[in-house]
């Protein structure tokens, strides 16, 4: 099960990287196109969609790998019990916040689909299509936070702690 979760987070990271490569290819096509006298229609729109997808796909992987910024200056001086409670409160709050974001991301996708919203660029794109990565990425982040909350509750070390190097589950 642990290997499956790791593959899930890694796939999310690869999807983010793929979107960054896609941005590079779109911008490169636009530069080459200008050199040869043609335009790439809606290049800015598609690179913007890929940027949003890269951002949201990268959230779960970055959280799992401990890449998000945590300020441990104060909590490293706390007792084991106080730090455990702090981690618990922060993860519960993060789960509530990421669940809210995931729910309303999918609600936004549904509304865009129902109202048949399209982009205003050269190429009209139904907006629900580029919004799907936002929903998937926010759902993946919610799963990552829930995963670490469960690990903390059963007495194991959350995935982000070993990457900090200062605070470990044994110290809690």
TrEMBL record:
Major localisation: membrane
Full protein name: TRAP transporter small permease protein
The UniProt record lists the keyword Protein biosynthesis: no
Keyword NADP included in the entry's annotation: no
Family: Belongs to the TRAP transporter small permease family.
Subunit structure of this chain's protein: The complex comprises the extracytoplasmic solute receptor protein and the two transmembrane proteins.
Endpoints of the signal sequence: none
Compartments, as annotated in UniProt: Cell inner membrane
Gene Ontology biological process: C4-dicarboxylate transport
GO CC terms of this entry: plasma membrane
Originating species: Aestuariirhabdus litorea
GO molecular function: transmembrane transporter activity
Stated role: Part of the tripartite ATP-independent periplasmic (TRAP) transport system.
Sequence intervals crossing the membrane: 12-40, 46-67, 88-107, 127-154
Membrane topology value: Multi-pass membrane protein
Domain annotation Tripartite ATP-independent periplasmic transporters DctQ component: ranges: 23-150
Keywords: Cell inner membrane, Cell membrane, Membrane, Transmembrane, Transmembrane helix, Transport
């Amino acid at each position: 099960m642990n290997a499956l979760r790791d593959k899930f987070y890694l796939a999310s990271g690869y999807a983010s990287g793929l979107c960054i490569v896609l941005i590079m290819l779109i911008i490169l096509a636009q530069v080459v196109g200008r050199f040869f006298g043609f335009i790439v229609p809606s290049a800015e729109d598609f690179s913007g969609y890929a940027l949003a997808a890269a951002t949201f796909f990268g959230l779960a992987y970055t959280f799992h790998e401990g890449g998000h910024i945590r300020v441990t200056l104060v909590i490293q001086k706390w007792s084991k019990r106080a730090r455990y409670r702090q981690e618990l409160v922060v993860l519960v709050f993060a789960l509530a916040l990421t669940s809210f974001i995931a729910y309303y991301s999918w609600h936004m996708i549904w509304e865009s689909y129902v109202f048949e919203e399209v982009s205003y660029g050269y190429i009209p794109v139904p907006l629900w299509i580029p919004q799907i990565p936002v929903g998937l990425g926010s759902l993946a982040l919610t799963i990552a936070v829930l995963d670490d909350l469960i690990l903390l509750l059963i007495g194991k070390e959350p995935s982000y702690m070993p990457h900090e190097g200062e605070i470990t589950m044994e110290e809690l």
